[in-house]
Amino acid sequence: MLVGVVGKPNVGKSTFFAAATLKDVPIADYPFTTIQPNVGVAHIRSKCVCKELGVTDAPRNSVCIDGTRLIPVKIVDVAGLVEGASRGKGLGNQFLDDIRQADALIQVVDASGSTDLEGRKVPPGSHDPLGDVTMVEHEFDLWMFGILKKDWEKATRNLEQTGGKVVEHLAERLSGLSVTFGDVEQVVLRLRLRTEKPSSWTDEQIMQFVVETRKLTKPSLVAANKADLPTSTPNIEKLRQTGRRVVPCASEAELLLRKASEHGLVGYTPGDPGFVVKDPAKLSAAQANALRMVEDKVMKAYGGTGVQEAIDGAFFGLLRAIVVYPVEDETKFSDKDGRVLPDAYVMKGGSTALDLARTVHSELAEGFLYAVDARTGKRLAADHLLSNRDVVKIVSSGKRG
Ligand SMILES: Nc1nc2c(ncn2[C@@H]2O[C@H](COP(=O)(O)OP(=O)(O)OP(=O)(O)O)[C@@H](O)[C@H]2O)c(=O)[nH]1
Ligand SMILES: [Mg+2]
User: Fold this and answer.
1) Which residues sit opposite 43 in a β-bridge?
2) Nearest CA to ligand 1 atom 30
3) 191: buried, middle or exposed (CB in 10 Å: 19+, 13-18, 0-12)?
4) How far apart, in whole angstroms, are the C-alpha atoms of residue 345 and residue 322?
5) Dist. CA 186–CA 47, nearest whole Å
6) Best substitution site from 225, 252, 297 to test ligand 1's pocket, by max atoms within 8 Å of Cβ?
7) N or C: more exposed end of the chain, with fewer CB within 10 A?
8) Mind listing the pLDDT tens digit for each residue in 15-59?
9) Distance from the CA of 133 to the center of ligand 2, in angstroms?
């Protein structure tokens, strides 16, 4: 699973990305700072099973901080998108190409309204960020529309003559965008499009198909960034009124806290509603002041910086992800060396016991016999649907079984 961080230029995408991954990427207050995409590892936050099971865990692929598991996930920060990008304006299709593989999107907006539609600085509050959200969605739609329209007449005539299936054709055209046959089928059915005569589809119908396909295959939430600035408050409310999922965000504040935590200056776990200064005497006047601002303008106002909430919202909310703990000894919840709850995996909602085996190792899947729910000791079949926070042993005849 991959989540893309998208939006118009200069809204704080790279700041959000840097805060989430602690990767050093260029950040600056002008448009098109980012050109090449940045791929990095963020973490989702989930209540660990260690306390419930009464064990002391020894995480390997993730970390556990006082009962909170942080589990790695992949995110990508891309170049800013401007109106006309689908026709090549700004950095054009490059942006769109970079998010083709994303399963969900976090759309970062400058909620403070201090950047115009192209990301240039304007007085705070003078630009309405709502238009930015629809612009980005529309450019994405125009781009997908363009891919389908390129040879629509010829292709549909051909399909009708040879008895080819339009659903297959659409799925093939959009396969590079992580759109599956099942996705296309679902949208075509819902819109009641005439599959036997695709040449009769109007541009409007093709566009409807595109919009619905985007919503299904690239679900998104809005990270209303720069929430620390006072002009953000009314805009956050306005964005919420559109019915979209909106998370107020202060990426710069999160970046500051993550770095201060890394240097041992504060106690802070991403997603916490507050932080503690470890030793006030160690802070410079500037650092103390910056932390006070974060406390007043972000923590007290919103109960957190929103960065972790947006990441969790994308994986758990939009993608219905689950966290699963594979173990080899189901009585001790450990691997074969006695390491307790070593790994936690983030998996798509609807994953089965066999999917977990595949995630751990292909050999485990090839020789799959059955799985065991470590909590209850019950046997689980290959097609058993896993739930969030399941602890599972895979029994396999494969070498690693
Ligand atoms: N006040 C405030 N400023 C922020 C916040 N997040 C980012 N910024 C500032 O916004 C400006 C743009 O940040 P970037 O992260 O480079 O933005 P971007 O969206 O990646 O920009 P491009 O790569 O050019 O598209 C920088 O000056 C950041 O310091 C925030 O939470 N609050
Ligand atoms: Mg950037």
Assistant:
1) 72
2) 226
3) middle
4) 8
5) 34
6) 252
7) N
8) 999 999 999 999 999 999 999 999 999 999 999 999 999 999 999
9) 17
How far apart CA 73 and CA 90 sit, in angstroms, is 29
**Is 248 close to ligand 1, i.e. is its CB under 6 Å away?**
no
3-class SS of residue 210: helix
Q: Do 384 and 351 touch, CB atoms closer than 8 A?
A: no
Pull the structure tokens for residue 299: 């923590």
Nearest-CA residue for atom 17 of ligand 1: 12
For residue 1 the two structure tokens come to 């699973």
Q: Could you tell me which residues come within 8 angstroms of residue 200 by beta carbon, excluding any fewer than 6 positions away?
A: 194
In which residue are the tokens 């998996």 written? 347
Cα(216) to centroid(ligand 2), Å = 26
**Ligand 1 atom with least separation from CA of 33:** 24
Q: What angle do CA 360, 327, 319 make, to 5 degrees?
A: 55
Name the packing angle between helices 130-149 and 203-217 (round to 10°). Answer: 120
Is residue 218 lining ligand 1, measured as CB closer than 6 Å? no
* pLDDT given for residue 400 in this prediction: 57
Determine the Cα–Cα distance for residues 282 and 85; give it in Å rounded to an integer.
Answer: 48
